[in-house]
Amino acid sequence: MVSSSDDACRWFRRFAQSPRSDRRLICFPHAGGSASYYFPLAQALRSRFEVLAVQYPGRQDRRAETCIDTISELAERIARALESLTEVPFAFFGHSMGATVAFEVARRLRWTLTGPLCLFASGRRAPGQIRDERVHLRDDAGLTAELRQAGGTDHRLLAEEGLMAAVLPATRADYKAIETYRYLPGPPLDCPITVLVGESDPKATLDEVSAWASHTTAGFDLRVFPGGHFYLDAHQQAVADIIDAALRGVCNGSV
């Protein structure tokens, strides 16, 4: 059996050494994404938080592992891996699919461990807001076209058939996981939720993201940025400042 610490080494990546060891931000990637997507955010926050990014199976250094194609299993596995990392206060940041995964991990932790101080849900509609999406059923060309349209994937990677052949299985599993996810009603979180979204995001309207307010008994904040689904790429520092301010507010008891 893999120990909790060994399991944590498999699931979490640290991209910047931080002088702060008393506060931790755990970041969850989007569908088709990997832990390295959060390298810029980790750099922006390194003086204020220890930043860890989740590495899902089936990509980069975990490419030999079997992909997980349900949000429930992904959340269960991550929640178990977090057991050795909850000795200091922590918060969650998730972009797109990662916001939903972070939310489901937070739900599981509330019954067994101390939950997150705050959930930052980026570029994702609230869990109960369902669209009929079937991208995971497309052929490889159709899936690649979706990645090109959504942005967030290096255009050089999209042009390399050999590299895309290695990337697409994990991407398809992620899309299947988020497109087949259905929220099961339950008690709301007791931590604040901050939602961040691009004003022209086709995957998350303001009405859809505002519905996150019903999933917490604590504070709710909505921040809208110029840009689309990957608004974050152009606003790393502004997002870092929002995270820092929100967590200072929680720690100071003002939220």
Can you give keywords for this protein?
255 residues; alpha/beta; 7-stranded mixed β-sheet; 7 strands
Briefly characterize the structure.
By secondary structure, the chain is of the alpha/beta class.
What is the topological layout?
Elements: H1 4-11, E1 12-14, E2 24-28, H2 39-45, E3 50-54, H3 71-81, E4 90-95, H4 97-112, E5 119-122, H5 140-150, H6 155-158, H7 161-179, E6 193-198, H8 206-210, E7 220-225, H9 236-251
Parallel strand pairs: 2-3, 2-4, 4-5, 5-6, 6-7
Antiparallel strand pairs: 1-3
Summarize the structure in words.
The protein has helices at residues 4-11, 39-45, 71-81, 97-112, 140-150, 155-158, 161-179, 206-210, 236-251, and strands at 12-14, 24-28, 50-54, 90-95, 119-122, 193-198, 220-225. The chain contains nine helices and seven strands. The protein has a seven-stranded mixed sheet, sandwiched between helices. The chain has a single domain (4-251), classed as Alpha/Beta hydrolase fold, catalytic domain (Rossmann fold), CATH 3.40.50.1820. 43% of the residues are buried. Helix 3 crosses helix 4 (97-112). Helices cover 38% and strands 14% of the residues. The protein is an alpha/beta fold and 255 residues long. Strand 6, helix 8 and strand 7 (220-225) form a beta-alpha-beta unit.
